[in-house]
Amino acid sequence: MIIRCPSCATRYRLGPQALGPAGLSRFAAPAIPSLAAQPLVPTAMLFTVGIMFGLTFSLNRIAATDGIPFILNIFCQSVGAGLLLLAFAFIFRVPPGFSK
Q: How far, in Å, CA of 84 to CA of 81, rounded?
């Protein structure tokens, strides 16, 4: 029996003794889940980031017209983003990485 690799098109010749009692079923590729079975978390995250990015301009405009100093506005946005990332790091139990 000749089997071909779908990635590199290399051919392999196999005898019946190489497959064993399970046959080709143990080499079968896993089924691709349907779109309905995919979790909605990535889509929800994409929409959330889009809404937050869109609101940034409006909130900066409101802060500027109300007299909030530019440095304070940027500092609060940075601290808020850092605290949000830290909260996600604790929720998913992935510590923030530090490197040089």
A: 5
Exposure of 66 in the CB half-sphere (CA atoms within 13 A): 9
Q: What is the pTM of this model?
A: 0.47
List the domain boundaries for the chain. Answer: 36-91
- Express each pLDDT in 25-60 by its tens digit: 555 555 666 656 667 878 888 999 999 899 989 989
